[in-house]
Amino acid sequence: MEINLKNVDEVKLVELSGDVDANTAPGIQKQVLSLAEPGSKIVMDMTNVPYMSSAGLRMLLSLYRRTAAEEGKLVLVGLSEDLQDTMSVTGFLDFFSTSETLEEALAMLNS
Q: Could you give the CA distance from residue 102 to residue 82 in angstroms, rounded to a whole number?
């Protein structure tokens, strides 16, 4: 698992690469939850995430809750068809804003 953190204007960009599972989700959560500050804008680029376990879904839900509590915004980018299906079936897609591209996500957050 590789985690890249960047700032794009006022947006915090988290680029994930690799599987998000019981082994990697705690480390991701540790790094990413701290980004959820008052009014924060966060984009999670998951274009290079082929697999996500239930531990990964819990990590996303924790980030969503923290971001919402801080009145921030969170957008997920580049979800594979498999991840979209899993998140749809479990009801997780109802919580998240999603986009196909990073450009679209940045536009959503800056509008």
A: 19
